[in-house]
Amino acid sequence: MDPEDEKLVTLARSARARTGGAEGAAVRDEIGRTYVAATVSLPSLSLTALQAAVAAAASSGATALEAAVVVTTEDEVDQAALDGLGTPTVHVVAS
After folding, report:
1. How many Å apart are CA 91 and CA 79, to the nearest integer?
2. Does the predicted model carry a pTM greater than 0.85?
3. Who has greater pLDDT, 40 or 1?
């Protein structure tokens, strides 16, 4: 994993630890901006960490992602949230 992706791992771990969520995620867009999120679990809204990070990127004007990291206890993550923003490198980090 390159150093820029290692930074995403640190950000995703921090988001997860800060909220105590099930997952933490970080994504990097086409110009190097990063977006970080944790699992959202509310009575009216449920998002995976990856969905929330992608939503933050898209709502900030990102048109493509180059990398994504998810810190989770699961073996795999649903990458459907990435549809429409290119095919970024995705790293799943077990916690």
Report:
1. 11
2. yes
3. 40
Q: Which tokens sit at 67?
A: 């990398």
Q: Which residues contact 95 (CB under 8 A, 6 or more apart)?
A: 13, 16, 71, 72, 73
The DSSP code sequence of the chain is --HHHHHHHHHHHHHHHHHT-S-EEEEEETTS-EEEEE-EEETTEEE-HHHHHHHHHHHTT---EEEEEEEESSS---GGGGTTS---EEEEEE-
Using only C-alpha atoms, the chain has a radius of gyration, in whole angstroms, of 12
Q: How far apart are CA 57 and CA 73, in angstroms?
A: 24
More confident position, 13 or 78 = 13
Tallying the residues shown for the chain, one arrives at: 95
Find residue 36's DSSP bridge partners. Answer: 26
**pLDDT-derived band of residue 3, with 50, 70 and 90 as boundaries?**
very high
